[in-house]
Amino acid sequence: MLESAPTAQPLTRRKLRILVVDDNRDSVITLAAVLRDEGHDVRAAFDGAQALAVAREFQPEAVLLDIAMPGAFSGWEVARQIRKTSGDTARPLIIAISAKYKQSPEKMAICDHFLTKPYDPNFVLALLLPLTSVPTPPR
């Protein structure tokens, strides 16, 4: 008797709360549009202080964060503050984005992923995929 191969369980995509942070408004608008087209709830911030305020209120599940922002809070500081205040259970995925290729290992350890500009928005969607895929319950 032949056994049939196990079938993959169908996956359902769930929407995420995503915070996009960059001082370049065009970058934020473009990436936010791609994420919204995928059905995600997206908020934007254009500097570090605004990012921290939005993160406290919005409680994002993922943060796409430009590292080199002007002002009192760099992207690294924003990432540190989000990690400090989120705790282990609500820990968001943080994707650092920078035009600089090399970063210190200590700084990079704060984030889950690091992308250099320019990046492919489809690669961002691929990084988010593990958070969005949930098994479809049997009928």
Describe the structure.
This protein is α/β, with parallel strands linked by helices and 139 residues long. It has one domain: Response regulator (Rossmann fold), CATH 3.40.50.2300. Helix content is 37%, strand content 22%. The protein has helices at 25-37, 48-58, 75-86, 105-108, 121-132; strands at 11-13, 17-21, 41-45, 62-66, 93-98, 113-116, 133-135. The strands form two sheets. A five-stranded parallel sheet has the order 3-2-4-5-6, with helices on both faces. Strand 2, helix 1 and strand 3 form a beta-alpha-beta unit. Helix 2 (48-58) packs parallel to helix 3. The longest helix has 13 residues, at 25-37. The chain starts with 10 loop residues before the first strand and ends with a strand. The mean pLDDT is 86.
Give helix and strand order, one letter per element, not per position: EEHEHEHEHEHE
Instruction: Tell me the major beta sheet.
Output: 5 strands, parallel
Cα-atom radius of gyration: 17 Å
**CATH architecture field:** 3-Layer(aba) Sandwich
Helix content: 25-40%
State the shape: globular
Question: CATH superfamily, please?
Answer: Response regulator
